[in-house]
Amino acid sequence: MRSQPALLPRSTPAVSGVSSRSITALLDRLEAQSIELHSIMVVRHGHVVAEGWWAPYSAGRPHLLYSLTKSFTSVAVGLAIADGLLSLDDRVVDVLPDHVPADISEQGRRITVHHLLSMTAGHSTDSLAEAWQLESGDLVKGFLRVPFSEPEGTRHTYDNATTFVLARMVERVTGRGLPVPRAAPHDRGRRRFRRVAAARRRLGRPPARPARMGGARDQTAHRDPATRGRLA
């Protein structure tokens, strides 16, 4: 049985058309300007040509990604769409009917995957805190209850709650939590989501709640964001 090719094969700067002197100059400049890095990876034409870590960080040590987690969730949404499990026009109320508040507005009923991905649901500020206040046990319901100040699709507002809702939608249509357990050889969906998770992901959780955040608190090894970039 043929093994799968490595997602991030190694090479040298010269072979990949990168100047080793330029990489050294970059590191020197970062140090001169007192810019603190935890790790660095330079990828050229799909090959890692340089990488390193600053103590106490190391190659395999999980690292908190903060909002880079949103990129992982967005890729998971894209893979679900590619597999025909979701579409950009799917509405939250249709995919998660058990999370729809009784007093939902007409605009809340119209919110789609596209609005969540583009953060154009119509909130004027980040809705996360208010959503938790409205529904401490159900953030999806709280998100749909936060008043909308703009028509959907007209204004981008950075909104942490949107990727939480997307994560719940992916879990619902796939029947699997994020990250996905080890794949069976015949299960293409599990293999693909496992690759997105980069095999080492460990998603954070909001206090006393089992759902993965989807938008923050993800932890991975430093190579995994580059792996995600190759899969995107």
Mean of pLDDT:
81
Report the radius of gyration as a whole number of Å: 20 Å
CATH architecture of the largest domain: 3-Layer(aba) Sandwich
Number of helical stretches of at least 4 residues: 10
Largest sheet: 2 strands, antiparallel
> Tally of extended strands?
4
Domains counted in the coordinates: how many?
A: 2
Q: What structural class do the secondary elements suggest?
A: mainly alpha
CATH class of the largest domain: Alpha Beta
Compact description:
With 232 residues, the chain is mostly helical. It contains ten helices and four strands; from the N terminus they run αβββααααααααβα.
Can you put this structure into words, describing what you see?
- This protein has 232 residues and is mainly α.
- It has two domains: 1-59, no CATH class; 63-231, 3-Layer(aba) Sandwich (Beta-lactamase), CATH 3.40.710.
- It contains ten helices and four strands, in the order H-E-E-E-H-H-H-H-H-H-H-H-E-H.
- The strands form two sheets. It has a two-stranded antiparallel ribbon with strand order 1-2. The chain has a two-stranded antiparallel ribbon with strand order 3-4.
- Strand 1 (39-44) and strand 2 (47-53) form a beta hairpin.
- Helix 2 runs parallel beside helix 8 (160-174), helix 2 (69-82) runs antiparallel to helix 9 (188-196) and helix 6 (128-134) crosses helix 7.
- It is elongated, with a radius of gyration of 20 Å.
- The two termini are 27 Å apart.
- Residues 180-211 have low confidence and may be disordered.
